[in-house]
């Protein structure tokens, strides 16, 4: 990856200040002095459980691009020991308003695990269920706690209590919750509130009032035999809704899940949102849909109604508000006669 020149970085920050405050040289409160601030211990509600932190974390390890960008947006680069990021998210780093921060903070590897966390001498891990945490890999907040390492779980990924289903609050509320919680934990409350206020303003300005007719949207993440998409627990669902559309899989109580092509065909979406990440480029994904023996026949494909957004905009993270704006602008191009 190429580091942006300082002048270009300043220009990007000024251009995107309305929704992406935080990537331009923030000052962080309570830098380490060896003493625990008087406000500790701090107890936060995370995934409907109280978690108590005895001291401010100083060597945080994150997993996934959206999670890492939350730390960057809060100006917490100097509290990080590093981040884990898969190769499929590299294009998202290149397009990130915090590309310089990704260069400064160590990239620890593609897949997070206990060995990598120990090697980084981490005192906290910020990850999520299916965003690093998982029983099959034996990498859980409980296991970290057993080794004296704190954990914070991405709120979008909180489990409902029904199997592995995720999503206990609206996704944008999850983003605001995490920003406020981390602002409290790291002593940057004013910055956190400023971010939330700016994000809420961006979403409200982009929000579309409808008369009951909304263009329907199918989010295509990946998958050939069965497509991966987003249910109502994922950030993508609320991005579509706030932009004036309707996710064709809104009734699925999960964040990211697999469906059948038959159900997508029955839904006959008015537009298609492409998640740009993974081992297939967005162009390859669109070509696959155009050449699919049955899906290629729906009007959205024939009329080329595709919008591509980076993965980092479609999972919980500080790019969500600008994704609402971009999606709203795109849905304005869908003819009203084709909306339902």
TrEMBL record:
<feature type="domain" description="Fe/B12 periplasmic-binding">
    <location>
        <begin position="59"/>
        <end position="339"/>
    </location>
</feature>
<feature type="region of interest" description="Disordered">
    <location>
        <begin position="214"/>
        <end position="233"/>
    </location>
</feature>
<dbReference type="InterPro" id="IPR050902">
    <property type="entry name" value="ABC_Transporter_SBP"/>
</dbReference>
<protein>
    <submittedName>
        <fullName>Iron transporter</fullName>
    </submittedName>
</protein>
<comment type="similarity">
    <text>Belongs to the bacterial solute-binding protein 8 family.</text>
</comment>
<dbReference type="Pfam" id="PF01497">
    <property type="entry name" value="Peripla_BP_2"/>
</dbReference>
<dbReference type="InterPro" id="IPR002491">
    <property type="entry name" value="ABC_transptr_periplasmic_BD"/>
</dbReference>
